[in-house]
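FAQ: What does the model actually see?

It sees only this:
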Amino acid sequence: MSELVAIVTHTVHAGQMAAAAERIHGNGLRMATRPGFLDRRLLAPTDGAERLVTVTRWQSQATYDDWVSHNRDHNPHAGTTAPFDPPNTLLLIDVSVAVTA
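And it is asked to produce this:
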């Protein structure tokens, strides 16, 4: 079975890093209730750039797709972009792990 890693880069309006992190945190709390969610990391650049990166792991592409569908229908921020400068970038990675001695 392979996991899915979703990496999203969020470009943030100038001076809105705290608001953006708070919104992403709320999204992460909703995400954590979904079947197949494994973990999430919120990363901030050390160069002072106005962007945040989230890295989430899912049991499969299907569980990630279920989250996307659910979030589209139940997201309290649907239709708004503040405090972000769209578009965000999304990278999905299928993780097939093979361990050899």
